[in-house]
Structures are given as structure tokens and as C-alpha cells.
Amino acid sequence: MHIFLPIILLIVCFTEQALTLQLVKVLCGYTIHNCKIINMILLLICASPSFIILDPKIQPESGVMFMLFMLYYLGRLLVFSFVYRKMSYKLLYFFLISINIPQIYQNLLTPCISNSVISNIIAFTISLIILSVLLIYIKRKNKELFISQLIDSLPKKLYVISLMLIFIASFFTMLQNKQGYGQLKSLMMLLSMIGVIAAAISFVLIGISESEKRAKVTILTNQIENQVEYYEKIERIYGEFRSFRHDFKNHILCLRSLIASNNIDRAVDYLNDIEKMSSVEKKQFNTGNIIIDALMNDKSEKAKKANTAITFRGYVPTIGISNADLCVIIANAVDNAIEACAKDTGDSQKTISIESDFKQGYFFFKISNPIFDEVNIKGKNKLVTSKKDKQNHGFGVANIMNTVEKYDGSADISTENDTFVLDIQLLLKMEEAYAQSAEPAEAH
Predict the structure, then answer these.
(1) Is the dihedral of CA 366, 437, 299, 391 positive or negative?
(2) Does residue 415 contact residue 301 with C-beta atoms inside 8 Å?
């Protein structure tokens, strides 16, 4: 019976590798090249050291053991690469997972089964069953694309470092079942420690990156929602205009009839009634920049919900700074001011005051608003947000500062007498002015 156990172990190990090869093909959409017989022979050669390295009773020299390890592990990766004629992160991912999972099963079985070869046979058999069920499920449910995209979404640094750590841990765990090999065990322990540190650093960096991505997604989502509201407003105004245009001829006929009968007073009253029928918004702001006019109109509507009025004095440049950068500065500043005013639990009217001007090549922008809770200014012009979700907020002021720096400007944040003040000065860029003046004028 002892003679057949290594052969059985070799067979289940080889079959497990063949199924893994098929799973990679299904999930990654790779094409298997070469003759099937050649591929199977190569896999069999790589699986051949399994009954030696997985049997603690067999203890070859350290150098021989290391070479067998390389053939069993790296040989399999080279065969996978040869079969698909490519080396990719996906391939490395599945390779590292495939060599570690049977080892996990074997470790779980060791306390129950003293014979290492039998426990490894059962471990590879379990892996075979799971791989077979997984392949059947993926093919029947057409999940290939979904799982492939899920793997693609993982940051490369994360799964490469994590799986390399699994690879080293698998080595170390396997050596723990072997007697001797003290130096090799020490080496694997050192590599494991280095891997843990690298993985920990990577997780922290990825966590920071993901927080920034979520914050950007939140900002973009808010911008899209604002655009949708703006387009809905345009559609509403356009609908009112179409309705008015539909009745325009009838109104003209009525007015003409009143004037023809010298009924001037009634004609004036009729005109007043027509004017009241139209609810098209009048322009509230005249900043000198039609983009900012539209932006301020939109922000004014939002401010009203917080029982707040916005006053604007001055002008906004149309050259020397892009409209996108103007919107970043003004929209974020006004949004923060509205949020501050919305914290007031009373019914009193609040006012957000804005002063804007440009002269001698500089743009000056100042906004002030009442505050109703403590504002912490940390360091130089860095606000500590009072919002609970600190990771995804505080980017508004940061975006303003980044834009100001882009134009070699300065910004000053201060609080005095329960009033928050943001004062910005930036240098208008002449190349921006030339670029904008060179654009063709719109037809009117």
C-alpha cells in the first residue's frame, strides 16, 4: 500500500494542476497553445517532485531539496507561462493561489491524519472537487467576465505583494513538517517577515489611495447631480417658453382687438396678466462672466433653502483664468459657506457676502459667512473638518488651495466675530487670456 501512495499523490497533484490550467483559461480568456500532450507532459514533470517534498520521511540534501522546490513551484509557473505564451498579473495570481490552497487543506488535516502523504492526497482531492465544481458553475452561469473584471479591479500592488507573501508562507509551512533544514527555515522566516512589512505598508498606501478615490467620486457625483438639476431647470424654462409661444398668437389677437377698440387700460391690464403668467427666472447676478452668473443663480437657490441670501459685488474675469478653475474656487467656497449657514438652528436670515474684482493682472476674491460652530484652522490655511466622514470631506478647501497655487496666488483663511472669511489673490495668466481670446466668438 505504501508503494501506491506516492503514485496516487502524483496523480491527484497532476490533475489539480491541469484543472487550475483550465480555470485560468476560462477566467482570463487565455488561449492554450502547443500540443495538449506536450502540455500534459510538462505538467507531469513539474508535479513529479510532489511525493518527495510532501513526504517528511524522505529527506534529501538541502541543495537537492531546494532544486525540487524550484521545480515543483517555479516550474509550474513557467509551464503556465509557456502554455499561454504570456506572463501576466492574472497568471501570477492564479499560480500563487493554486499552490497555497492544497497546503491549507493539508495543514487542517494534519492533526487528524498522522500520515503526511495520505493527508496531502486528501487535500489535493478536496482541491480537485472544489475546482471542478467552480469550473462547472462558472461555465453554466456565464460568470467568466464578471470574475475576470473583479480580479482586474484589484490594485496590482495589493495582490502581487499579498500573494507573494502567501507563496513564502506556503514554503515555510511546508518546511515546518520536515525535520532539519534549519538554514532554509530561517531564510523563509526572514522573507516572510519582510513580506508582512511590505504588505502592511502596501495596505496603508492603498487605503489612502482608495479614500482619495472615494472622495473624488463623491465630488464628481455632486457635480453630476448639480448638472442634472441645472438641465432640469433649463428644460422647465424651455417648457414654459414653448407653452407661452403656443398662446402667443392668441394673446396678440386679444391685444390688437383691445387697442383697436381704444380700450387701452384693459390692454395694459392684459399685458400685466401675461407677464405674471411667465415664471421664467430673471437674472439675479451680473458678474461679467455668464458661466459664473449661472453658477451663482444655482447656488442662490440652494442658499434659500438654508434661509440664506447671497450678495455679490464686483466682477469676475473672463480671461486670464479658465472657467473650470473659476468654478472650482467659487463653487467650493460658496458650498462651504452655505453648509456653514445651514448649521444654524434658528430662523434668522443669514447673508453670504462676496466681493470680486480684477485689476493690474490680478484676480481678487473674498467671501465671508457667519459660523455657528467652532472652526479649527490647523497650520497654514488648513481646515479641520467638523464632518463625521473626515476621510471624504475637506477636499473642497484643498481643491481651492491647489487651484490658487496653480496661478501663483495666495489665500488667507480667518475667523473673527463669528464670521468666516476666505480671501484669495491670484495672478491671471496671459497665456490663458491669449488662448481664450483666440477662440471663435459665438454667433448671436
Answers:
(1) negative
(2) no
